[in-house]
């Protein structure tokens, strides 16, 4: 597979990862562009890897971690958007936003483990190899991350009902979603 074909086939999935890790469309686009630029420069090395997508995903994760560390050192935080009326029938959009905001409240390592596990359906061993940590550290980060997400879950007005066929089956849901 050549680089252009790879970008056409896998950039949407890589963008979703970048978006969840950064919380901003602009930041995600910048992150993905930078990751793809690095991958393009080293495409010969990427293509001999077991999975070019996993290789580029690792670049995205590393760049997101670096960006988070720089923002943390500078004391910056992304702006929170205004939220709609809790009785709005489109409240599910806000719930997804709240989930992304709750993810961004997690430390970057914990957030990365949760995203790789639920968004990419990766197992403990695969995440451990990707992040170069032990499988037990992955399980610990995942358990603590889910506990923090549950604690941050809104307990107020229930959202509009969601048809079962539209609800993701593997992502953690806020109570009542």
Q: How many runs of DSSP E, i.e. beta strands? A: 0
The main pleated sheet reads as:
none
Regions with little confidence, pLDDT below 50 for 5+ residues: 78-85, 162-177
Helix content: 55-70%
Number of helices: 8
Radius of gyration: 17 Å
Bulk shape? globular
Gap between N and C termini, in Å?
40 Å
Strand content: under 5%
Structural class designation: mainly alpha
Order of helices and strands: HHHHHHHH
Mean pLDDT: 79
Key attributes of the depicted protein:
single chain, 177 residues, mainly alpha, 8 helices, 0% strand, disordered C terminus
Describe this structure in words.
With 177 residues, this protein is mainly alpha-helical. The protein contains 8 helices and no strands. It has helices at 3-22, 25-41, 43-47, 52-74, 91-105, 108-118, 124-131, 135-152. The longest helix has 23 residues, at 52-74. Mean pLDDT is 79; it is low at 78-85 and 162-177.
List the helices and strands and how they pair.
Layout lengths: L2 H20 L2 H17 L1 H5 L4 H23 L16 H15 L2 H11 L5 H8 L3 H18 L25
What's this, in brief?
The radius of gyration is 17 Å and the shape is globular. It contains eight helices and no strands. It is an all-alpha fold and 177 residues long.
């Amino acid at each position: 597979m050549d680089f252009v074909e790879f970008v056409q086939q896998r950039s949407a999935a890589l963008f979703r990862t970048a978006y969840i890790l950064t919380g901003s469309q602009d930041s995600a686009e910048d992150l993905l562009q930078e990751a793809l630029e690095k991958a393009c420069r080293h495409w010969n090395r990427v293509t001999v890897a077991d999975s070019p997508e996993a290789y580029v995903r690792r670049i995205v994760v590393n760049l997101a971690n670096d960006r988070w560390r720089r923002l943390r050192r500078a004391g910056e935080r992304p702006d929170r958007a205004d939220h709609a009326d809790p009785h709005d029938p489109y409240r599910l959009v806000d719930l997804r936003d709240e989930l992304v905001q709750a993810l961004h409240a997690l430390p970057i390592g914990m957030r990365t483990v949760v995203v790789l596990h639920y968004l990419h359906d990766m197992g403990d061993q695969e995440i451990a190899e990707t992040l170069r940590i032990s499988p037990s550290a992955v399980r610990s980060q995942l358990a603590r991350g889910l506990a923090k997400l549950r604690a941050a879950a809104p307990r107020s007005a229930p959202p509009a009902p969601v048809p079962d066929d539209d609800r993701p089956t593997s992502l953690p849901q806020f109570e009542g979603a």
